[in-house]
Amino acid sequence: MGIAELRNGFPDWAKDTKLNLGSLTRSKDLNEQQLWGTMLAVAASAGNATVLREIDAEAKEHLSEAARDAAFAAATVMAMNNVAYRSRAWLGDDYSGVRMGLRMNVISNPGVEKADFELWSLAVSAVNGCEHCLNAHEHTLREEGLSRETIWEAVKVAGTVRAAAQAYDILATTASDD
């Protein structure tokens, strides 16, 4: 089970995703917790049960229970925040001073290293397309001492896991056409 299972299920048209998923799981720019937390947070936010199940199965071998919980927390709090911050930006200047009014206590006490949680939040924000959150988390990560290469590696992981979810959504939908 896990990444190998996902990779074996990709059709030829998803070969790039298959190759990227394999190479990114051997990342030298992310430590084990950063890599698997990023993969799990994005899988949890991507909306495909197969991808989440398979990544979670393998992530359990690499993450503590606290880190696993924090990855799920990053996925859920960013689902909320990405919608709110994107909407506030789209609504324009009239809304720029409006108090957000949402609880997000997990950001200040995620149960893992601040930089790791911020990295997972950045990855989810990249997938969800929230420029405000992406920039805010990148700024915090740079203050925490992470390099551009480490941050970019998390973005590549996020894009690849999202692509895996898309491929499995396509497979599930088109399989019913046969």
From TrEMBL:
Known EC number: 1.11.1.28
Domain annotation Carboxymuconolactone decarboxylase-like: ranges: 99-170
Alphabetized GO MF terms: disulfide oxidoreductase activity; hydroperoxide reductase activity; peroxiredoxin activity
InterPro entries, per database record: AhpD, AhpD-like, AhpD_core, CMD-like
Entry annotated with the keyword Acyltransferase: no
Keywords: Antioxidant, Disulfide bond, Oxidoreductase, Peroxidase, Redox-active center
Disulfide bonds: 130-133
UniProt cross-references to Gene3D superfamilies, sorted A to Z: AhpD-like
Recorded superkingdom: Bacteria
Catalysed transformations (reactions): N(6)-[(R)-dihydrolipoyl]-L-lysyl-[lipoyl-carrier protein] + a hydroperoxide = N(6)-[(R)-lipoyl]-L-lysyl-[lipoyl-carrier protein] + an alcohol + H2O
Biological process, per Gene Ontology: cell redox homeostasis; response to oxidative stress
Catalytic residue list: 130 (proton donor), 133 (cysteine sulfenic acid (-soh) intermediate)
Quaternary data: Homotrimer.
Protein family membership: Belongs to the AhpD family.
Function, in words: Antioxidant protein with alkyl hydroperoxidase activity. Required for the reduction of the AhpC active site cysteine residues and for the regeneration of the AhpC enzyme activity.
Family annotation (HAMAP family): AhpD
Protein name per Swiss-Prot or TrEMBL: Alkyl hydroperoxide reductase AhpD
Origin species: Corynebacterium frankenforstense DSM 45800
